[in-house]
Amino acid sequence: MTPAPTITVSPIPQFDAPDEPLTAALHRAITDHGERVAADFLGATITYRELGEQVARGAAALVALGVQPGDRVAIALPNCTQHLAAFYAVLRIGAVVVEHNPTYSADELAHQLADSGATVALVWTKAVPAVLEARERTALRHVVAVDLAHDLPLSKRLALRLPVAKARRTAAAMRGPVPAEIPLWHRLVAAANPLPANHPQPAPSDVALLQYTGGTTGTPKAAVLTHASLVANAEQGHLWTQHRRGQETVYGVLPFFHAFGLTLCLSYSTRIAATLVVFPSFDPALVLAAQRRRPGTFIPAVPPMLDRLVTAAEKSGVSLHSFTHAISGAMALPPATARRWEAATGGLVVEGYGMTETSPVALGNPFDASRRPGALGVPFPGTEVRVVSQTDVTLDVAPGEPGELLVRGPQVFAGYWQRPDETAQQLLPDGWLRTGDVVRVDDDGFVLLVDRIKEMIVTGGFKVYPSQVEDHLRDMPGVQDVAVVGVPGGDLGESVVAALVLRDGHDVDLAAVREWCGRKVARYAVPRRIVVLPDLPRSQVGKVLRRVVRDQVLALPAA
């Protein structure tokens, strides 16, 4: 007889996911807080009532371009007010948003655009050339350019025209040349009549978003996220933070085209009728300028962002004490970073865990004294987790032992777009999602990350988890950052290599690394080679790309 699975349930198990589309939260915010500032983009503001008007006109403009319910509309934009409005305009007519990194190459965009079957693309002016180059390989009927400068305050827009070097540099960074035949989004919106209020709304079960993922381990594939799963995750976050509706100010420093930024900044802000302070990219100087103008209360970020903000605030004398809550994700939150942030703000910072396939948050640390920097946390409201054998997902591991994390909850995705085989591998018939992460659960119920299954190194028949070696090496004098990877190692199978970023003025050799590691890690996990890199490649949200590090190591001479 198979033993009953060991299931860890959220400390807030009772959770009734709202039965509504993602657009319902925007409608409530307009009704209840219409004159509240919805977005602040470098000082230019828009109220919820004005945002609703833009969404209604944008939706009508999309209908005029032939967009029907279920059609995919690509958005390739940095963070800006028009990104926020376009996102909800697409959803309002029952179409599907497909988010893209606007800095991708033509080939990268071509793959995603062709895969999704998008018929319309709303594209940053600087990305228009890449999309046009890719267009012949896609189903695109219309490409519409979005000018970021249009979202600036009037004074800053006028300043871009000044015949001075600084203005020319700023203008070149914000906008690019657009062929005459390509329409501008803000002009289409201004010319459209608002979509009638009685236009059919999307259903909660409808697909809202295709979010590409898996780029660090293979060809990117689109996670299918419904209105219901995205609404559930935003509401789970609200229960977790206990934020006040209509009173918070959220700092949008994470890119909206990434699952972390899209939910924690864009949709969550609307759910609680917050003011979203929008940044086109992460720049501590811009963030501190906004902090002087419109102090924030909540910031979702990655640890390096928090560190850089504290350093910049200390140098400039800007207070961060308005921030009561911060949530960190995409990588482990170092205890030192947590201490710095909490000392600088007087507020709390907690670590969360998730993936695109969970909309994206599945676990989090409580916003109270029980928080544990370095731990993934405990299940989100209405979420269950299991830890199972890495070779047989039907077998639960013993308490405290490492195993693969499985997640089940209302925020779990519907599968991969047009990839039934990969969906079946990841999403089990009973609703459990295989995360591919190795974890263990401690005696207090906190989930601790061991490593990614796909990034585990097998050397001489032994399993080496890179994160455990990296955590030890980061404490080594002279080491600023590290990534541990496996490369072909002859009879060993794989050889452990440490890619180091050194602190200024320091030198570290292999003998020192091996001696340092030999004190804490198993002999087979001690690096057999080191390489020194000027920096580590990272994703848009700061996660180290071990696959890219491995490629860099393989390209170097073996000596």
UniProtKB/TrEMBL annotation:
Domain AMP-binding enzyme C-terminal residue range list: 469-543
GO molecular function, one term: acid-thiol ligase activity
Keyword list, A-Z: Ligase
Pfam assignment, any one: AMP-binding_C
Tagged with keyword Ligase: yes
Sequence ranges assigned to domain AMP-dependent synthetase/ligase in this UniProt record: 28-417
InterPro entries xrefs: AMP-bd_C, AMP-bd_C_sf, AMP-binding_CS, AMP-dep_synth/lig_dom, ANL_N_sf, ATP-dep_AMP-bd_enzyme
SUPFAM superfamilies found in the cross-reference section: Acetyl-CoA synthetase-like
PANTHER family noted in UniProt: LONG-CHAIN-FATTY-ACID--COA LIGASE, NONRIBOSOMAL PEPTIDE SYNTHASE PES1 (EUROFUNG)-RELATED
Protein name as it appears in the record: Long-chain-fatty-acid--CoA ligase
Origin organism lineage: Bacteria, Bacillati, Actinomycetota, Actinomycetes, Micrococcales
